[in-house]
Amino acid sequence: MAEEIRAEIVANVAQIAVKEGDEVTHETTVVVLESMKMEIPVLPEGAGRITRIAVSPGDVVQEGDLIAVVE
After folding, report:
1. Which tens digit of pLDDT belongs to each residue from 31-64?
2. What angle do CA 56, 60, 61 make, to 5 degrees?
3. What are phi and psi for residue 4, nearest 5 degrees?
4. What is the full DSSP assignment across the chain?
5. Which band of pLDDT confidence, cut at 50, 70 and 90, is reported for residue 9?
6. CA angle 9–15–31, rounded 5-degree value
7. Distance between CA 42 and CA 8 in Å, rounded?
8. Which domains, ranges and CATH numbers included, belong to the chain?
């Protein structure tokens, strides 16, 4: 079952730490968001493979925007 990783806050995408096809666990940083000069790592809830990355460095995400999909 696919897990959609979505933004919880309005932020800038500072870094993408994985690429499509990478295996991840609940401890793997997928992207790093930056908001109000704080860096916020975004982690998946479970383990799986990254099948889609929906953002690029420098993008601005809104609350609820899709960041990545883990299957």
Report:
1. 999 999 999 999 999 999 999 999 999 999 999 9
2. 95
3. -90, 125
4. --EEEE-SS-EEEEEE---TT-EE-TT---EEEEETTEEEEE--SS-EEEEEE---TT-EE-TT-EEEEE-
5. very high
6. 55
7. 9
8. 3-70 (2.40.50.100)
For residue 64, what are the contacts with CB-CB under 8 A and spacing of at least 6? 6, 7
Nearest to 65 by CA among 51, 52, 55, 57: 55
- Write down the pLDDT at residue 1: 81
Amino acid of residue 51: T
Confirm if 70 and 38 have CB atoms less than 8 A apart: no
The pTM score is 0.92
